[in-house]
């Protein structure tokens, strides 16, 4: 095993022999040193989402990271990087834990894994994580079905706990007309009339070039805060670190075709902005903002959905993910539900207490969500009702 602590690189007792090696890096510069290899591994990891790209993780670390807390665990086969766990040490509810980088800002978390090396890489990654000292539980709070994290959990030698996490909604990357075919005929007719109104109002959409992506994200965030003025807003969205992370990640990801910022103008004036993240399989609608008065004239969610579907088809992706949250403005499209899981991997006895607390909090949150959803449906008689705050990022306040 190779351990990097920022002072130097020193060999430790080997965790594997022959062609396999594992590494654990704790210095923050490791992410940048390994950028090319992490990018290449992401391209070879079909289950990974945009939230596992080097650009997303490194921009987050630059804005949120704490020196000394990085735990980047790598597995190599004949020198080639075949698995990676980008984690950090932290304390959650008083317990020492490992958590994925960008937890909180990411709708899906996962490891990177090249399926060509599946069996050997999964086993060695699990053993390397167990060899990391100072933690009782590995808390994977938003694991998508089919993720590499499920494979690590299946082969984990210690105790594991699974519990429901967020529900994410998806639509196939079809033409907007086909999507309207999923809803009742009368509703579909109203939506078609709203599309004609959007076009008649002179609203145009344009993907900004990568060199303008950071500037466009700043403008989008300004619109987002205007949109939520005088209503409860996610406090993180008001902070400079969130702005730095999102602008830096979007700019770098746009250069590689892994993100797009779409600006909407009306008579030359910027009236809305939309950030979508482009993964191997889906386009994710992450965050948007619009001038407060736009909603009175057009159905903003319909306007953006049409464009997001076009981006997905243009990039050859199978779906548009509306990401976390089951707000009425998403459900009206009759999307498919994708249930995330929270997976806790135990290393020592206190992990059972941590997992029990996580399960209790998850049950309480589910009850609150059901009550809030019922109230939202009661008040959402209009199809263009403003989105309510939820656990996701798109329109999240």
From TrEMBL:
Region (Disordered): 375-397
Molecular functions per Gene Ontology: transferase activity
Keywords: Transferase
InterPro entries given in the database record: Acyl_CoA_acyltransferase, BioF2-like_GNAT_dom
Domain of life: Bacteria
Domain spans labelled BioF2-like acetyltransferase: 15-85, 189-330
Coiled coil feature spans: none
Record-linked Pfam families: Acetyltransf_6 (PF13480)
Identification of the protein by name: GNAT family N-acetyltransferase
């Amino acid at each position: 095993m190779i351990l990097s602590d920022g002072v130097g690189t020193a060999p430790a007792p080997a965790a594997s022999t022959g062609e396999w090696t594992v590494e654990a890096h704790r210095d923050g510069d490791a992410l940048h040193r390994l950028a090319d290899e992490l990018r290449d591994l992401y391209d070879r990891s079909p289950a990974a989402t945009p939230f596992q790209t080097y650009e997303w993780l490194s921009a987050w670390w630059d804005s949120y990271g704490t020196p000394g807390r990085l735990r980047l665990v790598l597995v190599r086969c004949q020198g080639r990087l075949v698995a990676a766990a980008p984690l950090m040490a932290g304390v959650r509810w008083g317990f020492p834990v490992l958590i994925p980088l960008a937890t909180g800002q990411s709708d899906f978390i996962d490891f990177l894994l090249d399926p060509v090396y599946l069996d050997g890489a999964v086993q060695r990654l699990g053993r390397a994580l167990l060899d990391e000292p100072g933690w009782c539980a590995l808390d994977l709070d938003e694991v998508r079905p089919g993720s590499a994290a499920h494979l690590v959990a299946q082969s984990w030698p210690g105790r594991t706990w699974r519990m429901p996490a967020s529900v994410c909604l998806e639509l196939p990357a079809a033409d907007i007309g086909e999507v309207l075919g999923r809803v009742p005929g009368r509703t579909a007719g109203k939506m078609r009339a709203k599309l004609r109104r959007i076009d008649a109002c002179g609203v145009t959409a344009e993907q900004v070039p990568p060199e303008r992506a950071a500037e466009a994200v700043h403008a989008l965030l300004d619109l987002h805060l205007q949109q939520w003025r005088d209503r409860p807003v996610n406090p993180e969205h008001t902070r400079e670190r969130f702005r730095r992370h999102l602008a830096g990640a979007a700019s770098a990801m746009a250069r590689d075709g892994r993100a797009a910022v779409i600006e909407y103008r009306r008579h030359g004036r910027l009236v809305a902005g939309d950030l979508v993240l482009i993964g191997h399989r889906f386009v994710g609608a992450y965050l948007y903002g619009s001038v407060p008065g736009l909603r009175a004239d057009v159905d903003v969610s319909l306007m953006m959905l049409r464009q997001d579907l076009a981006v997905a088809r243009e990039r050859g992706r199978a779906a548009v993910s509306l990401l976390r949250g089951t707000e009425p403005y998403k459900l009206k499209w009759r999307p498919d539900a994708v249930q995330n899981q929270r997976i806790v991997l135990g290393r020592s006895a206190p992990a059972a207490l941590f997992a029990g607390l996580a399960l209790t909090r998850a049950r309480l949150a589910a009850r609150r969500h059901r009550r809030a959803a019922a109230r939202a449906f009661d008040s959402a008689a209009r199809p263009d009702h403003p989105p309510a705050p939820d656990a996701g990022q798109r329109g999240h306040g």
